Structure formats: structure tokens, C-alpha cells
Amino acid sequence: MKTAIIRKEHFNSAHRLNNPNWSEARNKEVFGKCNNPNFHGHNYDLEVKVVGEVNPDTGYVMDVKILKDLIKKNVLDKYDHKNLNLDVDDFKLVNPTAENIARVVYDNILNDLPEGLELTIRIYETERNFAEYPA
Ligand code: NI
Predict the structure, then answer these.
(1) Sign of dihedral through CA atoms 49, 45, 98, 77?
(2) Distance from residue 33's CA to the centre of ligand 1 (Å)
(3) Which tens digits make up the pLDDT trace of 50-68?
(4) What are the structural domains, with CATH classification, of the chain?
(5) What is the pLDDT at residue 7?
(6) Contact 121/105 with Cβ under 8 angstroms?
(7) Which one of 3, 30, 53, 135 is at 20 to 30 Å from 39 when CA atoms are compared?
(8) Among this protein's residues, is 47 annotated catalytic?
(9) C-alpha of residue 93 to centroid of ligand 1, in Å
(10) 132 C-alpha vs ligand 1 centroid, how far in Å?
(11) Average pLDDT of each block of 10 consecutive residues along the chain (135 residues)?
């Protein structure tokens, strides 16, 4: 009897999408406004979904307070009001697209998650555009 719990969070970050192996023109063509050299901000929404068996003693898949603290430590404390390219080691060598943010957040939270739970991460870069990992 697997059940999902989902925690929603929010953070604001600046980023720039750029491939250092490409010319300026190619970067501009592929990434458009997200290639702006002086960075720009997004209001990111995050959904962290955890699937597992409901513990008969607690009625919980996991304690949401623990999940909340894991998200704070692994995402909010690291990314909120930061420049993802300049301030966050996770994106020193990784282009901070929604796809890559979702995967990095997944890896970081999974490290701290109790065993036997399945994790899915959604990152909304805008209301209409979001990435989910794993697919
Ligand atoms: Ni952008």
C-alpha cells in the first residue's frame, strides 16, 4: 500500500545559462535571455515527493518535519537568495537549468533520506515550465 507525500517549497535564485565551450553567439542563440551575462532571477518552486509504505504505528510514510529539515539543509540554505553559478558549488561545472537543478537536488536529498523510500523532484522555473527527475 504505497502512498506519496509531497512537500512544496520556494526559493529565489539568480542564474545564467552558458556553455563555456561555445562561442558567445552560439550561447545567445541557444539560451536566449537566460544567457544574459549579468545574470537574472527566477522564483523557483520545488516539489519533493516521497513514496513508501505507510508505517502502521505512525500512519506516516515519513515524518514531514524531517523531510522539511532535509530540504532546508540541502536546498534552501544553499540556493535561496544566491547566485547559482557563482555562489553554489553544485553548479560550478553544471549549467543551472531546471533539469540539472532537479537532478542535483535529487542526489543531495536522496543521500539523507531514510532507506526504502522513492524520491521524485520537480523544479518549477516558471508557473508553466518545470522539470521532473527522475523521469
Ligand atoms: Ni533563466
Answers:
(1) negative
(2) 7
(3) 999 999 999 999 999 999 9
(4) 2-11+42-133 (3.30.479.10)
(5) 98
(6) yes
(7) 135
(8) no
(9) 17
(10) 17
(11) 96 97 97 95 98 97 97 98 97 97 98 96 97 98
